[in-house]
Structure formats: C-alpha cells, structure tokens
Specification:
- By secondary structure, this protein is α+β, with helices and mostly antiparallel strands.
- The protein has one domain: Deoxyribonuclease I, Chain A, CATH 3.60.10.
- It is 21% helix and 25% strand.
- Strands 1-2-5-6-4-3 form a six-stranded mixed beta sheet, with helices on one face. Strands 7-8-9-10-12-11 form a six-stranded mixed beta sheet, covered by helices on one side.
- Strand 9, helix 4 and strand 10 (229-235) form a beta-alpha-beta unit.
- The chain is globular, with a radius of gyration of 18 Å.
C-alpha cells in the first residue's frame, strides 16, 4: 500500500497528509459522513485477542501485515458502496500512528491512501511512562500502548472534499490520565453552505459529569460558528441517551439512526449510523 509524506503543523498539533482532495467543493446539497472507531485496526479479533492476552498470548505475530490487511478490508467496505453509501468524509477514532500494537503502521495515512482521500490526523499526545488506570471489564479488551512506546494514537478526518479551518480541540480529562481526550473540527463548502464537521472522542470511562464537561468544550467551540451548519459525531459506548439529552439542551437536534451493517470479514465496522454513535445537526 502506498504511503504519502506528511507535515506537522506544530502550533495546532495537527498532521496533514499530502494527498490532495479528489474534487472541489460540491455544488450539491448531499453529504455523506461516516464515523469509524477503527480500534487501531485490530479487526474483528478485539475481544478474542484481549482474552488471549490475559493468559499470556498476544496475537497476531505478524502484526504489521495483519493491520495492513485489516485496513485494506476497511477500504473496500467504504469504497464498494454495498454496505453503506461511499462517504465523502470519514471520521476516525483510535487511529494509531507507529505504535507497537499496529506494527509501526500509520493507520489514518494507510486508510486514506487506500481510499484516495486527503487526511488530517490529531495525535492524542499520550503521556509516556504513565500506567493505565483500571477500567470497566467490558471495556478492557484492547491492547494497551506500551508505557514508553514512541508512537501515539489519535483521531482523524479523511475527505474527498477540501477541508478548511481545521481545528484541534483538547478536551478536559481527569479520570483517564493515560489517554488525553480530544476532538477536531473542519469546514467544507457544500451547495453554497459552509458545513462544520466535528469528530469528538468522548471518554466512555468518565463519569456522566466528566462526559458533560468534555461535550461542553465541543459545543462551546461550535457555538462560535453558529452561522454554519454543524455535523457532530461522538464516539461513546455508554450513557448515549443522557448525552443526547445534554446535546439537545444546547439547541442541538440529535438523532440516532440505526443501520444494520453486515461486518466485512476482518474488520469491525462502526459508523455514526450504528447504535454506538450519535449524529447531531446544529442549526443557527
């Protein structure tokens, strides 16, 4: 799989790929946005591999090859148009860059290259040498990034359309000191309208108050651009009903449309149209 060079925007702590957008700003009013917690491209073996690690076995052995294969499978799922419409913009969470658990692969860059999409990656900037805190057992299947791993995880936006005014949004985090939480936002021009896209990785381990604190930062940032339409995706696994109620208190029209998508073999596919995600539209 081809790889592209990248540049780091140090003041904003964002990484921009050099794959140009496939087309100019669209004159249509149709925009397909998908969100995918890629889970460091572990594929469908997230739970089974987590169980095996508890007994001292850490598959797969050929980590880099396995991760690249999972990314190729994801690229086919998003480009084929059979399981879901081909997205114009794809929001990623838990997209690792050069960690040991992905065999050194840059997940967002690899997937963007396979899809021919431009991309921006926001690294989580996890603290080195800080041991992870205890988590709920039902969220404790993923492989932890090593304490002194030189790689990082993060979130990303992949797009066929030009992204403007890309912003990193650091979120408050108290109960998950081994993983900072963040969001990122960007604007696309569609049918003469400026549409703001926000990809937020909200902490599922935090208390409800902690999740609200993070959401307040995201929505406060959105409040600064209320002359634009906003599409907002949050990656949350619990308390979704409470989060949607909170979002509505900020004059957000929140929806949870559920599509049943058959999972392609080798990849755990989730989008904002599944029960684990929420897609909200904020109107001025």
């Amino acid at each position: 799989m081809s790889q592209s060079d990248q540049t780091i925007d140090a003041p904003e702590r964002l990484e921009f790929g050099d794959i140009p957008p496939a087309g100019p700003a669209s004159d249509t009013e149709r925009l397909v946005v998908a969100t995918y917690n890629i889970r460091y491209a572990v594929g469908r073996g997230l739970i089974s591999s987590g169980i095996l690690r508890k007994v001292g076995i850490n598959p797969p052995r050929q980590r880099r090859a396995a991760v690249s294969k999972n990314i190729e499978t994801a690229a086919r799922a998003f480009s084929a148009g059979t399981k879901l419409p081909r997205p114009d913009i794809l929001a990623l969470q838990e997209a690792d860059n050069a960690t040991g658990r992905v065999g050194g692969v840059h997940v967002a860059r690899e997937l963007a290259a396979a899809l021919g999409m431009s991309w921006v990656h926001a690294p989580a900037e996890i603290p080195r040498g800080v041991p992870p805190q205890a988590r709920e057992w039902w969220l404790n299947f993923e492989e932890q990034i090593a304490l002194h791993d030189e790689g990082d995880t993060g979130i990303a936006l992949l797009s066929y359309l030009p992204l403007e005014d890309v912003t990193r949004i650091d979120l408050p985090w108290k109960e998950c000191a081994w993983r900072p939480r963040l969001a990122m936002a960007a604007t696309v021009v569609l049918g003469g309208h400026h549409v703001r896209i926000c990809n937020a990785h909200i902490d599922p381990h935090a208390s409800l108050d902690g999740q609200h604190d993070q959401l307040e930062v995201v929505l406060a940032d959105a409040n600064n651009i209320m002359d634009q339409k906003l599409l907002w995706e949050t990656s949350i696994l619990s308390r979704a009903r409470n989060v949607l109620k909170f979002a509505r208190s900020w004059r957000v029209r929140a929806t949870r449309r559920h599509f049943r998508l058959e999972r392609p073999r080798g990849v755990a596919l989730r989008s904002s149209c599944t029960p684990t995600g929420s897609l909200c539209a904020m109107q001025p």
